[in-house]
Design a protein that fits this description.
296 residues, alpha/beta, TIM Barrel, eight-stranded parallel β-barrel, 13 helices, 10 strands, globular
Length: 296
């Protein structure tokens, strides 16, 4: 596929109906600096589009079936209307086509890609002109656990060698501290509020019981947030809703957003996956971001 250029898309879509819709004045959201770019403090996350519900296989399949490329395009245009300037996702052909479709229809949404040497070829990712590329958190944690953290650092250097800002995603606050203490060259970090990469043995030692499926430990977010505040680089906090578990009631949802923004640095942002099948989650989440985050 030929490398897309956002500016070309904007020019080409100037007279199109979708482009006119996307060009309508968006509602404002606070933004922060990410290198030479400014990103909204609410970033749209791509897990639902990739079928990663972190809930059940059936919900994951429902998400994957819903988010065709045209639906991703429509979703990203809706994000632009609510002031969300940036989209973060791992790579797939469907995500690529949906993103390109949004650009063709006038969107200027920016892309942050999550990947690793085990995933998509970096050259394929770079054709989408991402504003940053972050090393996949699950792979990060596995390499740290195996004593191979330098492979993660080498990935950061490889992305930098291609002239693109580079970051690292992790679910473990101790790994974040290690990277900071060692002076890694990362431009940013993606930081999960919940440690999703504990082993079964670690969970059993912590809880004194074997568990089924993924576990969200309520004491995790304050631990990661403390490390985020100590971090010198911008952090993009994710899973602030515990993969939807904190959105069961309006009160829980609002408290999760309040806690997230109160707990991270003013120079940080949050990534939230949205699934707009049952309600306009884009508008709901953007309104909470406007309420609890402040412009810098």
């Amino acid at each position: 596929m030929k490398a897309p250029r956002r500016r070309d898309f904007l020019k080409g879509a100037a007279g199109a109906g979708w482009g006119m819709q996307a060009a309508a004045a968006p509602k404002a959201l606070p933004t922060v600096e990410l290198g030479q770019y400014r990103v909204s403090r609410l970033i749209a996350g791509g897990n639902p589009m990739r079928g990663f519900s972190h809930s059940s296989k059936k919900l994951s399949q429902h998400m994957l079936d819903y988010f065709t490329a045209p639906e991703i395009t429509k979703f990203l245009l809706r994000c632009g209307q609510e002031g969300i300037t940036t989209f973060q996702s791992s790579y797939s052909a469907t995500v690529r086509d949906g993103l390109v479709g949004a650009w063709e229809r006038g969107s200027s949404i920016q892309f942050i890609c999550l990947t690793s040497d085990r995933h998509t070829d970096l050259a394929e990712v770079l054709r989408l002109k991402p504003i940053a590329v972050c090393h996949h958190g699950g792979v990060t944690d596995g390499l740290f656990r195996a004593g191979q953290a330098e492979k993660v650092r080498d990935f950061v250097k490889k992305v930098h060698d291609r002239g693109v800002p580079a970051g690292v995603s992790t679910h473990n606050p101790d790994y974040l501290a290690r990277m900071e203490d060692a002076g890694w060259e990362s431009d940013l970090y993606m930081t999960c509020f919940y440690n999703m990469t504990r082993t079964d043995d670690e969970l059993e030692a912590m809880l004194r019981h074997r568990v089924l499926g993924e576990v969200f430990v309520a004491s995790d977010p304050p631990r990661m947030a403390a490390r985020i505040r100590q971090c010198s680089k911008p952090c993009l906090a994710f899973k602030i809703l515990a993969a939807g578990r904190l959105s069961e009631t309006e009160r829980d949802l609002e408290e999760a957003f309040r806690f997230a923004y109160a707990s991270i640095k003013p120079t940080d942002a949050v990534i939230v996956g949205m699934y707009p099948v049952f309600s306009d989650e884009v508008a709901q989440d953007a309104e909470l971001a406007r309420k609890y985050s402040k412009a810098t």
